Amino acid sequence: MRKKAIIFDLDNTIFPVPQIGYTLFAPLFALIEQAGYHGNEMDQIKDEVMRMPFQRVAQEHNFSETLTNKSIELLQELAYNGDMESYEDYAHIQRLPHDKYIVTTGFRKMQQSKVDRLGLANDFKEIHIIDPTTTKQTKKDVFAEIMHRHGYKPEDVMIVGDDLHSEIKAAQELGVYALWYDKEERYKPVPGVKKIKDYGELLKVLGSL
Ligand SMILES: [Mg+2]
């Protein structure tokens, strides 16, 4: 079945967050260290901040309400103004003839600055930023809304991302083909989820469906 639409995540799917993360999040990391998080836990927090929505990191590390609120206040104002590059295999995505979408979760100003710095507007039909500080919507809601609005059936769509617990899970719940992008081969394979490390493989997968 030929896919009509492909929905991509942004962070660690279009570009590697660690490329900008240490600079971008420096004030946040300082705030968290001041609150008493150090050593191994701090390393883990830094890694997670670059891979999942902040609200999830705060919850998993039992941040106090004060620290969570202060961090969110800071993150709502952060934007990235430096140079950014997409993954080297991004050119494969640019050449795909499909309707392409980005759905990303994060602070609006920050996510918008990444979209702008990467110059993504012309490569995608729609770009959606889900900011958990202003909406209760989930990725699953936005995927479903895109599919409904454009009349895509589940079999018309593919969803691509690096987070098993976010876009991959949502795709599976909607009965949509999920493709797991693991550029750095950080993760062990999981049964039932196709994992790739290069978008050259995406072309092969599309050809095989
Ligand atoms: Mg991601």
UniProtKB/TrEMBL annotation:
SUPFAM superfamilies: HAD-like (SSF56784)
UniProt-listed InterPro entries: HAD-like_hydrolase, HAD-like_sf, HAD_2, HAD_sf
Keywords of this entry: Hydrolase, Magnesium
GO molecular function terms attached to this record: hydrolase activity
Gene3D superfamilies given in the database record: 1.10.150.520, HAD superfamily/HAD-like
Protein name per Swiss-Prot or TrEMBL: Haloacid dehalogenase
Organism: Niastella vici
